[in-house]
Amino acid sequence: xxxxxxxxxxxLGLSLLLFMWGRWxxxxxxxxxxxxxxISGVVPxxxxxxxxxxxxxxxxxxxxxxxxxxxxxxxIDLIASAVLRLAKGQGSQMTALSGIGAVLSAFMNNVGALxxxxxxxxxxxxxxxxxxxxxxxxxxxxxxxxxxxxPPNIIVATFRTDVTGEPFxxxxxxxxxxxxxxxxxxxxxxxxxxxxxxxxxxxxxAEEMFDLDSYVVEVSVREDSEYVGKTVRELETLDEDRSIxxxxxxxxxxxxxxIRGERLRAGDLLLLRVDPASVDELVKKAGLTLTGxxxxxxxxxxxxxVGTIEAVxxxxxxxxxxxxxxxxMRRRFxxxxxxVAREGRPIQERLARTQFRAGDVLLLQGDEDxxxxxxxxxxxLPLAERRLTVGRPRAVLIPTLIFTVSVLSTVxxxxxxxxxxxxxxxxxILLNRISANEAYQxxxxxxxxxxxxMIPLGNALQSTxxxxxxxxSIVALAGTIPxxxxxxxxxxxxxxxxxxxxxxxxxxxxxxxSVAVAGQLGVNPDPFLMVVAIGASCAFLTPIGHQNNVLxxxxxxxxFGDYWRMGLPLEIIVVAASVPLILIFWxx
Length: 588
Known about the structure:
The protein has 26 helices and ten strands.
């Protein structure tokens, strides 16, 4: 092993460990690894940032913008509402949701497909846990069908260009991906959902999930309170780690926002969000009296101008890994955090210092007209059903037509996929189907940074001879076993990595290794690239392997260990089915 090989192995090995640990965001880990590789000399300085202009990166960004435009146009809402009107009962609803999710995921970002359907699923069913994990798995499986369905497919397709001179075409993945998706969804709907623990009933309303009467209490300001004449802000500083004031009731008026500068009067009623364990201590210190009803209804913290919303924290969100206190959440975003639930259970202590994790469900209070935009700015996904965009045929027609033209241009070979979809983004912006600002906000920049940083690292693994060294080791360990068994080994290794780290990073690392293995065996590299595409996308054992699994964790009330119950047999089915299919359609 050369010095350069040792360095790149050390950098990638450390990166993989940090991806699995999850303490730092994956984009920060990847970018730090790139800088270390440049400093150590295994990545030339003039090639350090070339990955950000890679066709795979451009395609992923363009697909995200196009997906968002199709969402806001209403075309997907029309399709979903039409199908779901015919679905009665949990079984038919689960089938309809999973089927729609899989179809949408084949032609748009699968996270976007889940974001569209999850609020609808929560409204339709009384048992979210029986529906949300199947929906997540279905959207992941649907992404296997086309080039644009998932980032690993895009990465593998563009990597093939370096190997054979041509990328995989838009529907090349369908030969294997479609049968696997159908088989996987059939298993999930028929058997898989029954393997989820029955007690994971999930919660649908804020009142049920967060037990509001334990979080928000009504108190009155006594005449002898030292805070009479002082501002609401000064009262909050008494115990700002564990309490905030979310409402002021004075005479006949009720104010729920912009109250921190208001001076308190004797007899004022305050709605206080406070840790249950510290209520008595705070009331005594501040000269307050508990006066609220036995149970606080959600309507008490809402008005015509002020609303509440439940939202789930997405992977890579601006607030992930930070606390309300460090964010200055109320000042920065103009919302009050009323409660947080993690894995379906409310967090009851020191919310101000609680670091947000992907999958956390938040109950937020703020201006009704701004809440949706604020949630998006925070990087969260609202868990309320979107208003259907109907009666706007022009809004539906133009984005659909542009998307169709871009797909046809790719299929017919007129333009490469990254050019076709980049042109579609330009057309959508020029025709005012999406604003430039919204396009930038729609792009998942952590994913872009991850890809842009990992691609030079993958190239360094090749240029230093690291991929060849790994391939030789795999072939040597495999000994005289048949090639289909080697394919299976590569597939299982890829799936295992994808269950523990980001699927795009897995594809970047495993694609060159798989080609090197094929080279050592003297066979066609296409089947090995295909097993990487399948394996990198099929992350079903843990919530951290795919963003969709994280998103359903909180609303479904799932625990970390729930995923393997349905995910393990599903991954076994995928392995058993995909290797024969790949050898049939992509022979050695």
